[in-house]
Amino acid sequence: MEPIKIKPLAGRILISVPFLQDFYFKKAVVLLADHSDEGSFGVIINKPVKVKLSELESDFEGFNAPVFIGGPVNTDKLFFIHTRPDLIEGGVRILDGLYWGGNLETVRKLIHEKKLSEAEIRFFVGYSGWMAKQLDRELEENSWVVSLTNTDQVIRSNPDEMWKQTLRKLGREYKLWVNYPPDPMLN
Fold first, then answer.
1. Which residues in the chain show pLDDT less than 50?
2. pTM of the predicted model, to two decimals?
């Protein structure tokens, strides 16, 4: 039986196929923030770096939130998703309870005032982007599987297990992918 194909939209995730060897996208789960005729963008939600936000940005001293590799575009910039549109103006809704960006000065202030917790926000260095129709071509080439997600999975899942957990939820058609060797040529 052919797996059900889900269309890419904001608030859905892309799961890389196991044989994709790109540095950024190998065993990646990407949250789409937008997908339209003009292109697509999002952030990789399962690749934390070993640096905490307070080590990366002096303005966030004492806030030890993890930082994630968001993707290969604009890697010199910081991006964020959050669950607090009531406190952070300017964010764009991605899915129920989850927002892209907003006023970074407000975020700094909320963190200093201890009104925003690490469980309510995730930070990313860079983002993932596709030109018009590029993601559609990659989907036709079977480089990605599109799946549904929710705010809890995005914000609270263990990033080290997210790729495998997400594949398991897709069903038995993807069971072999979970244990795909890092380099099948060595087997």
1. 1
2. 0.93
